[in-house]
Amino acid sequence: MNYNLIDYFSNSNDNNFFSPYEAYLKGNLFRNLYDDYKNYKPQKIKISNEQDELLLNIGQLSFVRHELNLLLDNYPNNMDILKLFNDYQELENNQIKNYERRFGPLTISSNNMKNIPFAWENSTWPWER
After folding, report:
1. Phi/psi of residue 44, nearest 5 degrees
2. Domain parsing of the chain, residue ranges
3. How far apart are CA 116 and CA 112, in angstroms?
4. What does the pLDDT look like over 37-94, one tens digit per residue?
């Protein structure tokens, strides 16, 4: 999977949303709420290895899911948005499992933290790469 994740929004008739990657770069999922700042253009994220790619995927999915959650706070009966939220949550969970299987725990609440010795100790920290 590359960093431009499957885009459920492109399959809908609603053009009010940015793609997950573009939303992640711009910090806003909603086209109608985004204003450019002067001549600022968001820079594409450069990935150098598979671990960085997985982290980027997780970040995108987490961001979109959070934005959809905020939308559902205001429109709790919108079944289309709820389906998108659930789809992105499933994708995010799969990416987290994939990351942790390959590179170790991502959070302190990970199931991989049950290992002995304590899994945090065995992982390489980002500044050690």
Report:
1. -65, 145
2. 8-128
3. 10
4. 888 888 899 999 999 999 999 999 999 999 999 999 999 999 999 999 999 999 999 9
Q: In the 3-class helix/strand/coil scheme, how is the chain assigned residue by residue?
A: CCCCCCCHHHHCCCCCECCHHHHHHHCCCEHHHCCCCCCCCCCCCCCCCHHHHHHHHHHHHHHHHHHHHHHHHHCCCCHHHHHHHHHHHHHHHHHHHHHHHHHCCCCCCCHHHHCCCCHHHHCCCHHHC
Q: Specify whether the CB–CB gap between 45 and 56 falls below 8 A.
A: yes
Contact at 8 Å (CB) between 60 and 100? no
pTM for the structure as a whole: 0.77
